[in-house]
Specification:
With 60 residues, this protein is mainly alpha-helical. It has one domain. Helices cover 75% and strands 0% of the residues.
């Protein structure tokens, strides 16, 4: 990303794309049943916490 001509645009485009994928998946799951949505949201939050813990700078 350091070599990008416009790193801000690259960061924002990445954020928007990832958010669209996640929100689209949650929308499709929500149409099935609210219990699926709750379990998907819980899994998403747990995965986020786990990856944040594992990938923080300075840890291997």
């Amino acid at each position: 990303m350091a070599d990008a001509k416009n790193p801000y645009l690259l960061t924002m485009a990445s954020f928007v794309l990832r958010m669209a994928v996640v929100m689209g998946a949650f929308y499709l799951i929500l149409n099935l049943d609210w219990r699926y949505m709750v379990s998907a949201l819980a899994g998403f939050i747990l995965a986020r916490f786990y990856l944040t813990y594992k990938l923080k700078p300075g840890t291997k």
